[in-house]
Design goal:
The complex is a heterodimer of chains A (307) and B (262). With 307 residues, chain A is mostly helical. Chain A is built from 12 helices and 2 strands. In chain B, 35% of the residues lie in helices and 24% in strands. In chain B, strand 7 (166-170), helix 6 (178-195) and strand 8 (198-202) form a beta-alpha-beta unit. In chain B, helix 3 packs parallel to helix 5 (148-160) and helix 5 (148-160) runs parallel beside helix 6 (178-195). The two termini of chain B are 33 Å apart. The chains are: A mainly alpha (307), B alpha/beta (262).
Chain lengths: 307, 262
Amino acid sequence: MSTVFPLIQTALELGLISSLTVLALFLSYSMLNVCDLSTDGCFTLGAAVGAVVAISGHPYLSIFAAMGAGILSGFITAFLQTKMGIDSLLAGIIVNTGLYSINIAIMGNSSILNMNKTETVFTIMQEKLASTFLKPQYKLAVSVFAVTAVAIFLILFLKTRLGLAIRATGNNPDMVKNSSINPVFTTMVGLCVANAFTGLSGCLLAQSQKSVNIDIGSGMVTIALASLLIGRTFVGNRRIPLRVIGVILGSVIFRLVYTVALRFNMPASMLKLVSSVIVIITISAPYLKGKWPMFKRRLGLKNSREV
Amino acid sequence: MLQINSISKTFNPGTVNEKTALNKLSLNVADGDFISIIGANGAGKSTLFNAIGGTFFTDEGSIILDGEDITLQPEHVRSKKVGRLFQNPMLGTAPDMSIMENLALAAGSGGWLSRLSKKDKEFFREKVSLLNMGLEDRMNHPVGLLSGGQRQALTLMMATINPPKLLLLDEHTAALDPATSDKVLELTESIIAENHLTCLMITHNMETALNLGNRTLMMNDGNIIYDVSGNERKGLHVSDLLEKFRENAGKDLDNDRMLLGN
């Protein structure tokens, strides 16, 4: 038990922190129907900005700075695809590439920053919990707090008129125009909010690890997508609050499974391959399932001819 | 009310696919007019609606709605004043969202961050019960589960929940079975009469074209070739319309659906 619990704890922390990115994709991918490929770069941007501001002595401000940077990045991605005629996938890739240079610049032309002695929300929480039994769970406490806040915000947000309009933009853009709503506006707001979550996610991961390197966000979009799809298989297409919970659950399950795999001596570098395979399976399975009856008929036909 | 001054629209200009869909078309619509529009395939009927609704901008000419020049207004701005229904019932609603949420978007009351109040919900339920389709008990069901007729009736409700200055109906019952089609047409009539809406309706059913509304337009090659209202219209039969078409267009009406439709 004593060896298992720390593993579960790490998986929970990581799962919760990265579930913020999954919630971002829930908004952009599931609701707005835009696959935002700038997610990797934006995650690193949040981590870098959060680290730099925290190192300069502003632990709370670092959180908001990281979210602000995410909003800016989301705005640029949205601007490119709605106002500049660039395809939405390409817009994400372009911003992602550009962010690499920007992130290096933010980190002071270095590809790694250390926060060993930096005051962050995690160290603050550690001090606050110092005299309680929750002391070892200080990272978990911060993660739970952040995820709860974001989840509640998202659930409430999607119920507002703006939230409805964002959902409709992903569902039927023509209908949105007919309802006197500008889909350009809803796409921009949706991507800005989503990337604020991504930035926050990156910031918290970096601060919990006490370091940030330029590769911290690489592959995040696939990992988050895998988590999102795992969550969807559990919860299905039900009401929004349930789906939001499913998203968080999916992220935690993904990390738990991954942790278990590590225990069975899977090399850590396999994480990205595993997430790719999960995304491939969950997206293509329903498609292949639909094709299966036809495939069976063809097979039957072939066999009967041979007889 | 609506004043269209010599608008033209050419698609794919300068290519082999060049097609002049609207050719210096002018039209004056009076307040409260209910106009039916007929014409062969490719006559420019839907193009005319797209020009008024703002799906694209016209190459020349101007469109004045209620004293306001809307020629260069983007679609989502115009849609405050112009309500539209299409032949395809799928176009007007968001399938994954509930009836309530669809209506809330169409009604668009309150600020961006406002949420549906109890009063709103009651109001929407009341509105939907007017459709007489039992949808008021399914307010939280996704619209994607409704039949084509139900979706089109709901779209009609959504387009008129804030009465627009102008309602454009583009063969909005053509994809429905005859019984549903009659029901939706009935609803259309009563909603138009109740709200005193000004309405343009494209139809392939010449019977409907003559029975509904107070004025009928016939289109061919991007222009209006016959415009009839008042007493002259009252005496018209379907056969007269066919004759008029031959007279004015110099050819037979070749819209199969029109000829075979009841």
